Structures are given as structure tokens and as C-alpha cells.
Amino acid sequence: MSGVPFTSTAEPALPPAPGFWNSPGLRRFRRHRLAVFGAATIVFLTLACIVGPWLLPYTDTFIDIRNRFAPPFSGPHVLGTDPLGRDILARLLMAGRISLAVGFSAMAIAMAIGIVVGMVAGFYEGALGAALMRFVDAMLCFPSIFLLLAISALISPSVPSIILLIAMTSWMEVARVVEAQIRSLKTREFAQAAVSFGASNRRIMIRELLPNAIAPIVVAATLNVAHAILAESYISFLGFGIQPPTPSWGNMLESAQSYLTSAPWLAIIPGAAITLAVTSFNFIGDGLRDALDPRMEGQ
Amino acid sequence: MIAFLLRRLGQSLLLLLIVSVIGFAILHLAPGGPMSQFAAGGDMTQADLDRIAEQLGLNRPLPVQYVEWLWRMLSGDWGVSYRDQQPVLHIIASHIGATLELMLTSTLLAMLIGAWVGILGAIRRYSLFDSLATVGAMIALSIPTFWFGLVVIYVFSVGLGWLPSGNRYTMGDGSFLNQVHHLIGPCIVLALVSTAVWSRYMRSSMLEVVNQDYIRTARAKGVPERQILMRHALRNALLPMITITGLHVPTLLSGALVTETVFTWPGMGRLFLDSISYRDYPVVMGILMFTAVLVLMGSLLADLLYGVADPRISRSGR
What we know:
The complex is a heterodimer. Chain A contains twelve helices and no strands. Chain A is mainly α.
């Protein structure tokens, strides 16, 4: 058994490894001011949506009939009230719970589908891989909103079914990313080494290849949350998504167009919340891309 | 080149076949299926429903239904609407004009602004303008199209009274100017996302080109900077943009649906939404397939045009 000695007593002491906070990746992320802004915003929004409703004097379903259409910053209702006299801030936070939950859960499911399909297609290229990727291509031929609407009209809309629906129509990009990664990674030496050790295909895929493809997967996951929140808002706005009385950022806007002249805040406030959340996720995704993939730096 | 063309065409046809299977499967395997429109009323007995299924051929095995449906589609018979018994192709044809008008004008607008922003960003890289354009593009990609539409209506129709808040023209006034006036709002709204996409890709495409040897050669020859940019750099930087435009069709179609809804624009997107509310299966299916064909044509055209425009690609005979 000759070769590289396993340990050496003469090994010089290594400098202490940089802690988590000072790791090169995180340093690059922190330098990306917009990404930090995005991350802070998401943390703030999430906390506000979780804790906020308990701190407010009104619940999202309390009807203050004498204060209908109250404009923002004018009375006891900080962000005003809707046509039924419900407090908009309370509804905004409850809607945020739903919209953010839909975004995160749809992302998790979409990632699971996309990673499995991409991994299998990339690893087994050949007929199976080709068939899977042609299926991905075919799914991408349908403009996403058309596909979402076509299916959402057929199912009874509820929060879980909307989550599933959005996941089912947004896993394809992830599959493409993962497939390309796995296909190139499996020709690398460490993968060949695993093959020569007699590791099973499943072990090679999950333990060797997938961890090395984690950077683009994390970026895709972040952008996927942004996409899912947008998708939810689109179909809810069009009346086929989350159904009232459950509030979501999208369905708060559903009737807003009729009141655009008399009560513009009904449209402006929820839309601003969606834009803020989606922009933040996109900023984070952009920052992660720079942080995790040093080759992209300076582009 | 011919071989490449044929192979690409063959691939597209195969993809179209898969697309048709998926589309058919989604609409027929969903709970309720194509019969849900009749069952929704609740005033029909099971015997009635069975008879309707029998008459529409919906009680046969799915593969049989699929093959027959595909054959009919290929021979130009896309079925008739449940709502008014009009042929589906006829209905689509009467709505596609408004959608194409909107898509083409907004693409043109997005190209002009996006290219300008992208080029300026590339020339003055890391300048204040460049940073603002980068952040602006990110935000533009994050704004829900329908909300931007509402904001545009609020500012320009409700507030300033400059633009009409919807429809394609004023009733009884079909003049060209009136139509253009109505087009401005939806066109701006639909162009937002495309502009952001164009500016990003234009910037990176331009940055790639300006570092090429032939640009340095042109500089060394003493060609004026302006001419280098316009003649040498821009022409080559625009090439990849053909592909971007072709691949952008699905996003554009989705955006058009939302824009048409907000601006009550009588196009295909609104037709789709109406048909869905009515569970008008033949029309929903027809539009779904039609948009998929448009998307496929977009990417095919992008490939072919790119092959024609870039001699390096056509010569390699890929």
C-alpha cells in the first residue's frame, strides 16, 4: 500500500479556517448591497406577516362598517380600509402569510421535481434522458399563465391545490439547470473515482454529483420563490387562484380596478407588497449567483 | 444549411406532438374533464350527461379520442365552441389580430428602449446610469404586469386624462389616430418586461463584442469611436438578440393575456380567460395549442434567422 501517506506528523499548522460569517462566499454576498437589502426585506416581511396580525387592533375579517373606504394614514386604520370596511394592513399581513407560504412551498415542490428529473436525465443521458428533456421542452412551450389558468379552472381552487399547480408549472427551468450540471459533473475525476469504487448509481447521483451542483440549484430556488409569488398573484388577480375570504396579495387586487378612481390605495398597497417581495427575492438570487459562482464576477 | 433546417423542423414537429399529448392529457384527465361544463348546471340527469358524452364521443377510451382529435386538428377542424357553436379556428382568427398588434408594437418599443439602455450601459460600464439601469431592470422584472397596468391607468387615465383606460377604439370612431391612442397604454405595460430583458442582454452582448480583436483593429486604424460603435460593434452585438426575441414569445404571450384583461383589449388572452370561466373546452384547448405553436415557431424562427445572419453558423452546417 504505497501512495500518499494518510497523515503526516510534520504537517504545518493550518491557519484557522474562516468562520461562517467570514467565508469567501458570504463576504461576496455581503458586498452585494442589493442582495443584503433583499435579504433584510424578506426577513422583515416574513416576521411582520407572522407576528404582525397579533399586534394589530383589528383582525383581517373585522368589518368596520362606518369606516368603509377610509384612505391610508387618516384615522385608526393605518393603511385605510377596503369596500367592506376591513383593515387593509391586517389583510395585507394575513395575505402575506398566504402568499409567502405559497411561494416557499411551491418552490420546494418545484425544486424536488426539477432536481429529480434533471438528475436522472443528466445521469442516464441516452433514451431516458432525451425523453425526459423533450418532455421539459414541451412543457416550456406552453406560456406559463395559459397553462396555470387552464388547469386552475378545472380544479377546485384551495391553497394546497394552488401550491401544487404552481409547482407543476415551474419545475422545468430547474430541471434544465440540474441536467446540464450533472451531465458535465459526471465526466469529472471524482465522479469517475466513485464509479471505480463500485458506488451505486443512486449514491453517485445523490452523494457525489448533487452536492457539487448545489450553487446553481440554490440560485434557481431563490428565483423560483419570486416566480411562484408572481404566479400566485397573477392567477388570484384573474380570479382563478386563492379564493376569498382567504386573502392573498393577488386577490386583494382582484376588485381594485373597479375602485381605481375613488380608492386607488386598494390597488397600490398590495401591488407594492408583491413588487417589494419579488424584487427582494430577485436581488437575493442575483447576489447568490455572484457569491456562489466566482467565475461570474465582474459581469 | 438545408440539413440543419430540416433537422430543426423535424425536432419542432416531434415537440409539437408531445405538446399535443400533454395538452390533451391535462384537459381530459382533470377532474370533471370536458363534461364539467354540462355537469356544472346541476339540472341534468345522469342519463342526459351520458347521452351528451355519447354524442360528443367523450365516452370512448382516451387514446382513441386523442388520435381522432389529433387527426381533426391536422385537417383544420378544431371543433366548435360550446358557447356559440362557432368554429374554434374562426374564433381564434378573429381575436389574434388584436393580440399580435399589441405584441408587435410593444416588442418594437422594448427593442428601441432596451437596446439604447443596454448599449449606453455597456459603453459607460459601472457608471451611475449603468447601475440605475441594472437595478431598474431587476425591478421591472419583478413588477406584476397587471399592477403596472393599474398604475398606468391610474396615472395617465384617471389622473392626467391623457390616455383612454381600455378598449381598442372608441365606439363609432374607427380612425387610425383613435386606435393608436388606445394602443399606447397597453403597449407601454406589455413592453416593460421585454425592455428589461432586452437591456440586460444587449448590455452583455455589447460588452462581449467591444473586447474583440476587430474592434481594437478598427480603433488602431483610427476609425472614429462613434462609427466603431454603430458600424462594427452594434451590428455584431445585435445578432444574438434575434434569439432572445424568438425565445421571449412565451413571456410575451403571458404578459399579453394579463395586459388585455386590465385594458379590456379584445385579444386572444381575454378570449382564453372568458372561455375558461365558461369551461368552453374546445376553445381553451384550441388556444392552448395555438400558443404552443406560436412559441415553437418563435424559437424555430430565431434559430433559422440566426443561422442566416451569422455566416459562422450556417457554414458549419449544424
